[in-house]
Amino acid sequence: AWVCDPMHGNTFEASTGFKTREFDDVIDEVRGFFEVHRSLGTWPGGLHVELTGDDVTECLGGHQKVSAEDLSSRYETLCDPRLNREQSLELAFLVAEMLREH
User: How many whole angstroms from its chain centre is CA 2?
Assistant: First the structure.
């Protein structure tokens, strides 16, 4: 099965010193994964995503427009930055749409 991990290749240190990810970079990688499979006639087997249902500020962007300055307010991870509740739902709806189009 082909699986996409849009998280680990998109990690960087923000100007504020926090390890983070840009939500748009994660989305772009997921879209590319689906586009490649659509063009080849193959099936996208899965996604590895680090997320939480909590209202954390660990990844930049998304509908809430989390900024680098926001990271310190609710940065709770002990390891890798996770998508928060809103970003996770946004990604889920985008993936559902891509699956319908596939």
Answer: 18
Query: What separation, in Å, do the N-terminal and C-terminal C-alpha atoms of the chain show?
Result: 16
Q: Structural domain boundaries of the chain?
A: 3-101
Q: Which of 58, 99, 96, 100 shows the shortest CA–CA distance to 77?
A: 58
Q: Which residues of 35-70 are buried (b: 16+ CB within 10 A; e: fewer)?
A: eebeeeeeebeebebbbeeeebbbbbbbeeebeeeb
- pLDDT, one tens digit per residue, over 51-68 is 999 999 999 999 999 999
Residue of 71, 70, 85, 59 whose CA lies nearest to 6: 59
- The CA distance from 84 to 23, in Å, is 10
Q: Which residues contact 44 (CB under 8 A, 6 or more apart)?
A: 2, 4, 33, 34, 37, 102
